[in-house]
Specification:
about 350 residues
Length: about 350
């Protein structure tokens, strides 16, 4: 009964956040339509040819739309619904955190920034500077919270909050390099994070372990699973030769180009925090002895279908580093059109 009550409460919380964000987005869309007419997505932005718009009106419309989408993108302080969703089974969590729901939020932030306002106009909107600060704070704070979480999926959930804000940060920089980095990070984060959630699910199903403090030595019993986890973790950190390096490279370059030192600092600090909350798991799994109180008895590697799935996604994080052509071409076309 208590579990069901908790799930009902979490569902209501997610619904409340989503409804609130949707209302803000709707207000922004309707308001924009009243002053700009048809607002179908256009290259260089719907507003690129309109020069007589009131700047303050644009700022408010921009805030309504981006904050409304920021709820779906788990932008601080509208992120509270996402960690609650970690109770879902691992495949559902992977879909939620890496592919579908939250990605819809950050994808639409990019679409609104590039094809509604336009990259050039984003750079002129003062509100975008505030959103750079909010995104930077989200990146660092969520990483710091993840560092303290002992629950495996909770750590991954706060990592997702941090990583999603890289995409928002890139969109708010107001230059092509930022938009390219944000667009790339949608794909690069997806393959890395889906690998991590698959690994967490494999450990839970096979070894019945859900806490990081219980994982000492598990890599010697589940080498394929924890090896894939190491690859996904290194991609999240942004180390080469893994996919996350490419998107972080563009984001870091965009932050330097615009002299957004808060963004530069957030990327550097969060990268160090990423290493601090991921690499001890890898080290403990392969190099520490099993804790006598948490021995991994009567199990070996995860079932073959599970291993094949997580190895395949881990392999993609490497292939996308060496062959980033398709996603890179798409986001370059997007930024060029913006």
């Amino acid at each position: 009964m208590s579990v069901r009550l908790r799930l009902d409460t979490d569902a209501r919380l997610a619904s409340t956040y989503t409804l609130g964000g949707g209302v803000l987005l709707l207000i922004g869309v309707v308001w924009l339509h009243t002053i700009a007419g048809p607002i179908d997505f256009q290259e260089r932005g719907v507003l690129s040819g309109l020069t007589d718009l009131d700047p303050w009106t644009l700022r408010w419309i921009f805030l309504f739309m981006i904050i409304g989408l920021g709820v779906k993108a788990a932008l601080f302080p509208f992120h509270g619904w996402l960690p609650k969703a970690m109770v879902a089974p691992a495949p559902v969590s992977a879909l939620l955190h890496a592919v579908a729901v939250v990605k819809a939020g950050v994808f639409t932030v990019l679409k609104v920034s590039v094809y509604i306002f336009g990259i050039d106009r984003i750079g002129q909107i003062a509100a975008a500077d505030w959103l750079v600060v909010i995104a930077a704070l989200t990146i660092v704070l969520a990483s710091a919270i993840a560092l303290r979480k002992d629950n495996f999926k909770a750590r991954l959930a706060y990592s997702t909050i941090s990583q999603l804000s890289y995409i928002t940060l890139g969109a708010m920089l107001g230059i092509a390099a930022g938009a390219i980095g944000g667009g790339l990070h949608i794909a690069m984060h997806a393959v890395g994070k889906i690998t991590l959630f698959f690994c967490a699910g494999a450990v839970l199903v096979t070894a019945h372990k859900s806490k990081i403090s219980e994982l000492n030595g598990i890599g010697r019993r589940m080498p394929w699973t924890m090896g894939a986890f190491a690859i996904g973790a290194l991609s999240m950190i942004g180390a080469p030769p893994f996919a996350g390096f490419i998107s972080k490279w563009y984001l870091f370059g965009g932050a330097l180009q615009t002299e957004q030192w808060i963004a530069v600092g957030a990327i550097v600090i969060s990268t160090l925090l990423n290493a601090a909350y991921f690499m001890p798991i890898v080290y403990a799994a392969f190099f520490l002895d099993e804790d006598p109180g948490h021995r991994h008895v009567e199990h070996g590697e995860a079932p073959l279908p599970i291993v094949l799935a997580l190895v395949a996604t881990a392999l993609f994080t490497i292939l996308l580093f060496f062959f980033p052509g398709v996603p890179l071409t798409l986001v370059q076309q997007m930024a060029g059109g913006g």
